[in-house]
From TrEMBL:
<dbReference type="Pfam" id="PF00059">
    <property type="entry name" value="Lectin_C"/>
</dbReference>
<dbReference type="InterPro" id="IPR016186">
    <property type="entry name" value="C-type_lectin-like/link_sf"/>
</dbReference>
<keyword id="KW-0430">Lectin</keyword>
<dbReference type="InterPro" id="IPR016187">
    <property type="entry name" value="CTDL_fold"/>
</dbReference>
<feature type="domain" description="C-type lectin">
    <location>
        <begin position="42"/>
        <end position="155"/>
    </location>
</feature>
<protein>
    <recommendedName>
        <fullName>C-type lectin domain-containing protein</fullName>
    </recommendedName>
</protein>
<dbReference type="InterPro" id="IPR050111">
    <property type="entry name" value="C-type_lectin/snaclec_domain"/>
</dbReference>
<keyword id="KW-0732">Signal</keyword>
<feature type="signal peptide">
    <location>
        <begin position="1"/>
        <end position="15"/>
    </location>
</feature>
<dbReference type="InterPro" id="IPR001304">
    <property type="entry name" value="C-type_lectin-like"/>
</dbReference>
<dbReference type="GO" id="GO:0030246">
    <property type="term" value="F:carbohydrate binding"/>
</dbReference>
<dbReference type="InterPro" id="IPR033989">
    <property type="entry name" value="CD209-like_CTLD"/>
</dbReference>
């Protein structure tokens, strides 16, 4: 059902979506036209960028959702496969400072960058209610405007 490939990180343009399947410490990268996950979590790395809401809609259209990162191991794994700032499934849109995951679970384990989340910091030009994973500083998290255009990570759990 999966087409195994070794193209990850080669810089070649891919016409299919890239999915990483993780199960029991084993990961494999596949290219497929669908997000299929027969056993464990699969992660889709978007090729396009968009707002947090557009990213979530794309994931949900694939019967998945934005990724919920609930352990240092999952964070470390995702850090090895992301190449750009990417939306994750964390926001405080309902109540400022009350961060929660798209599946409704509260935020317990975090990987915020230093002085984050800061809701725009001292300049406060706009609200920062959605979280993304950075590509610098060990893939820490940052809050930013939900209308910013970033890539995203979908997660499908069978």
């Amino acid at each position: 059902m999966f087409l195994l490939t070794g193209l990850l990180g080669t810089g070649k343009v891919l016409s299919l979506i890239m999915v990483v399947e993780a199960c029991g410490g084993v990961k494999r990268t596949v290219l497929t036209s669908e997000l299929l996950c027969p056993i464990c979590s699969c992660y889709l790395l978007s090729e396009s960028s968009g707002s947090w809401d557009a990213a979530r809609k794309d994931c949900r259209d694939r019967e998945a959702d934005l990724v919920v990162i609930d352990s240092p191991e999952e964070q470390s794994f995702l850090a090895t496969i992301t190449q750009s700032y990417s939306w994750i499934g964390l926001n405080d849109k309902e109540q400022e400072g009350q961060w929660k995951w798209v599946d409704g679970t509260p935020l317990i384990w975090t990987n915020w960058a230093t002085n984050e989340p800061n809701n725009g910091g001292f300049m406060k030009l706009y609200e920062e209610d959605c979280a993304h994973m950075r590509t610098d500083d060990h893939r820490t998290w940052n809050d930013c405007s939900c209308t910013s255009s970033l890539t995203w990570i979908c997660e499908k759990i069978p």
